[in-house]
Automatic annotation (TrEMBL):
Keyword Cytoplasm in record: no
Stated name of the protein: succinate--CoA ligase (ADP-forming)
Pfam hit, one: ATP-grasp_2
Reaction(s) catalysed by this chain's protein: succinate + ATP + CoA = succinyl-CoA + ADP + phosphate; GTP + succinate + CoA = succinyl-CoA + GDP + phosphate
Gene3D superfamilies (UniProt xref): ATP-grasp fold, A domain (3.30.1490.20), ATP-grasp fold, B domain (3.30.470.20)
Keywords of the record: ATP-binding, Ligase, Magnesium, Metal-binding, Nucleotide-binding
Domain ATP-grasp: 9-229
Source superkingdom: Bacteria
Organism: Escherichia coli
Gene encoding the protein: sucC_1
InterPro entries: ATP-grasp, ATP-grasp_succ-CoA_synth-type, ATP_grasp_subdomain_1
EC number: 6.2.1.5
PANTHER family: SUCCINATE--COA LIGASE [GDP-FORMING] SUBUNIT BETA, MITOCHONDRIAL (PTHR11815:SF10), SUCCINYL-COA SYNTHETASE BETA CHAIN (PTHR11815)
């Protein structure tokens, strides 16, 4: 079960991880009001769908006026966004996220998955932020650095520092990266996740790390232990057959001939 970016960032905030100030909005008026709450622009507006490639499809935009925010909301809310990760019908846009724009100096990648072969949670970090990690793995695998969590000890700060050094980070950025690493690992384990990803994790021009994007995938078999995550489920983003099966705690499979 996937979460929206704004939901992922809500979880990040609960665990003390840095992310831009933002609000999920369902109407153009809410979007304009969100900009007023955030303060002076520029702002970033993002369609909230369970798919990557939003930027290239026009679903992410930097804007300088509230009129542009309203126009973006009117253009996308209630429509469907088609990206390279969706089918031809696309995904419905029911919310847009309005955030303060971030001055970016460098983009990194940090994420984790369950490695079925080793039966451990494996973290991956790369200097190639903003690029699909699958593409990095295929074209420049040496730029992906990994650490596996020991199921007995859990995440250790030295592992975060090890990744930070491999990314070429220095000074306070090592400390900030280690805090983010430990926070993500804690979220992953406490929330029964199957995937967590910050792409990009950016270094701002002020010299700080911030989680500019967030992607979370929960283990559907463990949702009975995570009632708050279950409440975040957006069935409009799922195949109707799978959504109906999930209501009865069933798994949809295709039978072969």
């Amino acid at each position: 079960m996937n979460l929206h970016e704004y939901q992922a960032k809500q979880l990040f905030a609960r665990y003390g991880l840095p992310a831009p100030v933002g609000y999920a909005c369902t109407t153009p008026r809410e979007a304009e009001e969100a900009a007023s709450k955030i303060g002076a622009g520029p702002w970033v507006v993002k369609c909230q769908v369970h798919a990557g490639g939003r930027g290239k499809a026009g679903g992410v935009k930097v804007v300088n006026s509230k009129e542009d925010i309203r126009a973006f909301a009117e253009n996308w809310l209630g429509k469907r966004l088609v990206t390279y990760q969706t089918d031809a019908n696309g995904q419905p846009v029911n919310q847009i996220l309005v955030e303060a724009a971030t001055d970016i100096a460098k983009e990194l990648y940090l994420g984790a998955v369950v490695d079925r072969s080793s039966r451990r949670v494996v973290f991956m970090a790369s200097t190639e932020g903003g690029v699909e990690i699958e593409k990095v793995a295929e074209e420049t695998p040496h730029l992906i650095h990994k650490v596996a969590l020991d199921p007995l000890t859990g995440p250790m700060p030295y592992q975060g520092r090890e990744l930070a050094f491999k990314l070429g980070l220095e000074g306070k950025l090592v400390q900030q990266f280690t805090k983010i690493f430990m926070g993500l690992a804690t979220i992953f384990l406490e929330r029964d996740l199957a995937l967590i990803e910050i792409n990009p994790l950016v270094i701002t021009k002020q010299g700080d790390l911030i989680c500019l994007d967030g992607k979370l995938g929960a283990d559907g078999n463990a949702l009975f232990r995570q009632p708050d995550l279950r409440e975040m489920r957006d069935q409009s983003q799922e195949d109707p057959r799978e959504a109906q099966a999930a209501q009865w705690e069933l798994e949809l499979r295709c039978a072969g001939r």
